């Protein structure tokens, strides 16, 4: 079940998020796929027809609890892991630079440590450390999230509309071991 001939820009856009086969499209909505730079309505129409011919369909709704301006792929399932969900939502909303959503994930006095051993404090400092505006992002790939007790880590990749990428690895510390704890410290690499 290979992808139909949807044109080079659309095919390349799908490749940036490691989609090479039709069945890999089924977790996403058509609207998610349209967020990729290079994928337009004609390509989505062709993909929809190819999926239907195989008895497959785009998802009816996104598995994320909020809308994003870019496509999000990867390690998104959080079933019985509330801290994984917090880290997932924090990663997405930090790249979205959405302060309202970030307050649900981060303590008010969150501390951010960067590779040059500088410490920054608060939501605004975190947002200023994101080197790209949400409008420049085509996709966010969360490759892995691990959590245990009051600690978590995650790594992934941001792909910009111009095709350049930003790889990241982060370590998070929560306020406590409680399920509803927010992130109080972040080390960004």
TrEMBL record:
The protein, known as: DNA-binding protein
Keywords assigned by UniProt, alphabetized: DNA-binding
Listed GO MF terms: DNA binding
Source organism: Fundicoccus ignavus
């Amino acid at each position: 079940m290979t992808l139909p001939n949807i044109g080079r820009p659309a095919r390349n856009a799908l490749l940036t998020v490691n989609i090479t086969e039709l069945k890999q499209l089924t977790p996403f909505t058509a609207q998610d796929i349209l967020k990729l730079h290079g994928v337009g309505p004609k390509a989505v129409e062709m993909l929809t027809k190819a999926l239907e011919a195989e008895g497959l369909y785009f998802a009816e709704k996104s598995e994320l609890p909020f809308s994003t301006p870019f496509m999000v792929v990867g390690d998104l399932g959080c079933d019985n892991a509330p801290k994984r969900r917090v880290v997932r939502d924090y990663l997405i909303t930090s790249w979205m630079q959405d302060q309202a959503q970030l307050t649900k994930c981060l303590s008010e006095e969150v501390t951010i440590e960067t590779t040059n051993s500088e410490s920054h404090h608060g939501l605004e400092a975190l947002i200023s450390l994101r080197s790209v505006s949400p409008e420049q992002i085509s996709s966010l790939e969360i490759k892995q999230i691990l959590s245990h007790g009051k600690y978590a880590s995650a790594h992934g990749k941001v792909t910009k509309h111009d095709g350049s990428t930003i790889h990241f690895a982060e370590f998070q510390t929560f306020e406590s071991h409680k399920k509803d704890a927010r992130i109080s410290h972040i080390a960004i690499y």
